[in-house]
Structure formats: structure tokens, C-alpha cells
Automatic annotation (TrEMBL):
It comes from Natronocalculus amylovorans. Pathway: Porphyrin-containing compound metabolism; protoporphyrin-IX biosynthesis; coproporphyrinogen-III from 5-aminolevulinate: step 1/4. Belongs to the ALAD family. 5-aminolevulinate 1 binds at residues 211, 223. This is Delta-aminolevulinic acid dehydratase. Homooctamer.
Length: 328
């Protein structure tokens, strides 16, 4: 055998040069950590399917935020578990709703950048992300009433901004949600508050642990009438284009790892910042394998987030901040 390699890329892989030629880096500034605030409990309740995460009572929301900011991460997203649910998700836009109470405390007592998820599924008794026909229960072919839902989403966004939210993130996949929320915020004097749209949110089985955590699983049917079909990529570009036209400031893809092609497509096609949501199922998988001794959670988590950035995301929502604290 006389073949000699004509190119030697290994030259750039020595310990000395690797950091110099590294194309992607991950820092605490890239990350947003979700927290769960629960009105139905007065003590922290561990979330079984998301080891290391608890539902915390409103009174402990500030402590929970401080645990996160200690890792160097300075942005959080708040999810609420209300004590009562009804057909119109009233708790989502109540002045004394669980998220509004938590946000008031967090914004008064910390400097964290506070992002509000805007959706109705945690607050509706049927668990869908908007208003449904009264007779829709048990009929999985009936679906969310789009335009009636818009007004409630706008009210939710305004009530969160009034409670101290720095950014609003609508996740319901209602047509027109960004435009309705932008108009609502502007009319209420919150034209300075940016909107991060869950623009390309897929109907994904990777949300399973979150639905346990936030108690937001639909009681009938599923979400395929409003969330996107995992089979579609071009449709994501249309969805995102609409959100841009309606005034979205940041564009999100969700989930992250199974949808890195979508992250890359958006990076190529749009100039806005791109966010990716490394969802509950992506977190739970690594932890489950880690518990069996099959994977190293910290290493695989770091590699996951680095890959999401490499695909083109500027910011990442992730439950891994605390596992990665030492490396950020
Ligand atoms: C609310 C919402 C969901 C998630 C974020 N916001 C659940 C869903 O659409 O079912 C999922 C987040 C995760 O899995 O980590 N609509």
C-alpha cells in the first residue's frame, strides 16, 4: 500500500489549536431556563419525568429563579399550574393568576430577564390551547375556535406584561396570535415588549414529560389541528413568514434536536434571532439513559446544546442549565 493522504485535517485537532479553530461556542448568555410555578401546593414537588425540576409554590418562585441565575443564566420562562381550570382558561389572564403573582414577585426581587409563555392549555379544563366548541368534548375531530381564542391570548399577554414580563412568547399555534398579541400589547402601552413566537411548533410526542409537569395534556383528542405536522419543512417557512409579518421579534423552532433542519432553514431564510426549544422529552431521554449508566448526561447535554447552536440557533430554551452550570 503506497497511498499517502493528500490532505491532513488532523493537523488542526491538537489540543493547542482546537480552541482556536472552534466554530461554535456555548455560553450562559445563550440559554433560557423554564420554571414551573404551582398554585396547588405549598411545598416543592419534584417532577418525576424531569429529574432536577420541581413545581414550586408562588412563594418560592424567587428562590427558584436565584438557583438558576447562580448558574450564570440570566433569562427564565415561567409556566403556571393554576388551582382552578375552566372552559375559557380564565386563570391565564387573571390579575391574580399564578403566573401573574409569580411574575410580580420575580420582577420586583430579581434582575432576571422574565419571559412569559402565553397559552391557554394549562388553564382550560379540556386542556386545549384555546376555546373549543361546548360540544367538542369527546369529539376529537372538533378543534379550537381560532379567532375567539385570539382575544384571550392578547389579554393573557397584556396581563403578563403588566405583572412584569420583559418578553412575551405565544405558544398556542393559533393563526394570528402574534398580530393579536402585538396589537394588544401596543394598545396597553407595552409597545417596547418584544414577542418571541413559537413560530414553528410541531405536534410532537417529545412534549410528554412537560404535560405531566404542567398538567396540560388535552382531555380528548390531540393538537394536530393547530400544531404542525412533523412531516413538513416548507410549511415552517410559511408559518414563520406570517409571524414576521405580524411583528414577531424572535422566531422559535420547537422541539429542537429532531428539527435541526428547520433551525438551519430559518437561519438561512430570516435575519431575526432564532430560538430553539430543547423540550422536556429531549431532557428526559438523556436523564433516563444516564440513570441506567448508558450515557453521560452532562456530556450529552452539552453536545446537544452545542449542536443546536451549530445548526443556527442564537438562543436555546433548555432544562439543562443546572447540569451544565460548571461548564457555562
Ligand atoms: C404550551 C406549551 C407546551 C410546551 C411549552 N409550551 C406543551 C404543549 O404544547 O403540549 C412544551 C415544552 C416542553 O415539552 O418542554 N402550549
Amino acid at each position: 500500500m503506497t497511498f499517502e493522504p493528500t490532505a491532513r485535517p488532523r493537523r488542526l485537532r491538537t489540543d493547542g489549536v482546537r480552541p482556536l479553530v472552534r466554530e461554535t461556542t456555548l455560553s450562559a448568555n445563550d440559554l433560557i431556563a423554564p420554571i414551573f410555578v404551582d398554585e396547588t401546593t405549598d411545598k416543592r414537588v419534584p417532577i418525576d419525568s424531569m429529574p432536577g425540576h420541581d413545581r414550586v409554590p408562588v412563594e418560592q418562585a424567587v428562590d427558584r429563579v436565584k438557583e438558576i441565575t447562580e448558574t450564570g443564566v440570566s433569562a427564565i420562562m415561567v409556566f403556571g399550574i393554576p388551582d382552578t381550570k375552566d372552559a375559557r382558561g380564565t386563570g391565564a389572564y387573571a390579575e391574580d393568576g399564578v403566573v401573574q403573582r409569580a411574575m410580580r414577585a420575580i420582577s420586583q426581587e430579581t434582575d432576571v430577564y422574565l419571559i412569559g409563555d402565553v397559552c391557554l392549555c394549562e388553564y382550560t379544563d379540556h386542556g386545549h390551547c384555546g376555546v373549543v366548541e361546548p360540544h367538542a368534548h369527546n369529539d376529537p375531530t372538533l378543534t379550537v375556535k381560532n379567532d375567539e381564542t385570539l382575544e384571550l391570548l392578547a389579554k393573557t399577554a397584556v396581563s403578563q406584561a403588566a405583572a412584569g414580563a420583559d418578553m412575551i412568547a405565544p405558544s398556542s399555534m393559533t393563526d394570528g396570535m402574534v398580530g393579536a398579541i402585538r396589537a394588544g400589547l401596543d394598545e396597553a402601552g407595552f409597545s417596547h415588549i418584544p414577542v418571541m413566537s413559537y413560530a414553528a411548533k410541531y405536534e410532537s410526542a417529545f412534549y410528554g414529560p412537560f404535560r405531566d409537569a404542567a398538567d396540560g395534556a388535552p382531555s380528548f383528542g390531540d393538537r394536530r389541528h393547530y400544531q404542525m405536522d412533523p412531516a413538513n419543512a416548507r410549511e415552517a417557512l410559511r408559518e414563520v413568514q406570517i409571524d414576521v409579518e405580524e411583528g414577531a421579534d424572535v422566531l422559535m423552532v420547537k422541539p429542537a434536536l429532531p428539527y435541526l433542519d428547520i433551525v438551519r432553514d430559518l437561519r438561512t431564510e430570516f435575519d431575526q434571532p432564532i430560538a430553539a426549544y430543547n423540550v422536556s422529552g429531549e431532557y428526559a431521554m438523556l436523564h433516563a439513559a444516564g440513570e441506567k449508566g448508558w450515557l453521560d448526561v452532562e456530556e450529552t447535554a452539552y453536545e446537544s446544546l452545542l449542536s443546536i447552536k451549530r445548526a443556527g440557533a442564537d438562543l436555546i430554551l433548555t432544562y439543562f442549565t443546572e447540569q451544565l452550570a460548571d461548564r457555562l
